[in-house]
Amino acid sequence: MARPPSRRPGYDRKAQYGLFASYVVAVSGALAGLLLVIVATFDPTGFAVIRATVAEITRPASITMRQLVSGFGTIDEQIVAYFRAGSQNAALRRQVDTNRTRLIEAAAIEQENIRLKKLLQLVEAEDGEVVAARLISSTGGSTRRIARLAAGRAQGAYPGMPVRAPEGLIGRILTAGPNTADVLLLTDSQNIIPVRRARDNIAGIATGQDDGSLEVRSLNAGNNPFRPGDIMVTSGTGGLYRPNIPVAIIVRSDGDKAIAVPLANPARVEAVIVQRPYEATVTPVGSPSPTESPPSASPTPASPAPASPASPSPAP
């Protein structure tokens, strides 16, 4: 049987000191643990203070060890993410492109809802509305300023009917088919509209210039009272266009005429309404105007005339 190794360190003082130190540490640890158990049992408040102090002292070491453990624990995930970065970036780019398209569509739908709400308010306020439709195209290469309307005779749109948008007048129907119609725009030279200045009712005539603008002339020859910023609306003179429809805004004066631009831009307007032609009524002389209330049906009886004094009878 082999002799068991001796636990004595022999004559090596370094080994003796190490063995003694290990005994001292073990005994000290046991005593410290026993002391902590006694303190925790008989003085919980003091034990809580000791525990908080130890936690504060060991906090930096705990944070460092936590970071080391987390770093070593996620090494495999970081390696996989490194090799998958290319595919992930491609997927994220596709998602960003999809989200950008959806944002653009949402913004377009929001603008369309705003325009349709304005049109709905206009339809509810107008009593001469026939049909609401969309402008679907325009004659870009033609010398005439014409837009195509997605409504025709089947929907009640006939030549001569005015067409307007929430922002103002668009023009009038020139020709109408079964389900489409051509709208002669305000800016066409064949379109002449009686207008007036909104703030003081000065009358004028607006004529298209085939270049996207209108020429406005006063009814008084040689006099141009219109200035930039003036708003022109329909006057209702001659019928066809209802009064007080916004038409254009004056941008500059040019001698005896003024240049204006339409308030309703057909390039930005999608939905419009077709109205019945306006029939101006002429009030006969002596009859009450439409705004005046008619006279009462039961006239007030006239008061009797005072009796004339009796003439003296002739002498016999």
UniProtKB/TrEMBL annotation:
Pfam families: MreC. The keyword Transferase does not apply. It comes from the Bacteria. Residues 137-274 form the Rod shape-determining protein MreC beta-barrel core domain. Keywords: Cell shape, Membrane, Transmembrane, Transmembrane helix. The chain crosses the membrane at residues 20-42. Residues 291-316 have a biased composition (Pro residues). One of its GO terms (biological process) is regulation of cell shape. Residues 280-316 are annotated as: Disordered. GO terms for cellular component: plasma membrane. Belongs to the MreC family. PANTHER family: CELL SHAPE-DETERMINING PROTEIN MREC. NCBIfam families: mreC, PRK13922.12-3. This is Cell shape-determining protein MreC. It comes from Sphingobium algorifonticola.
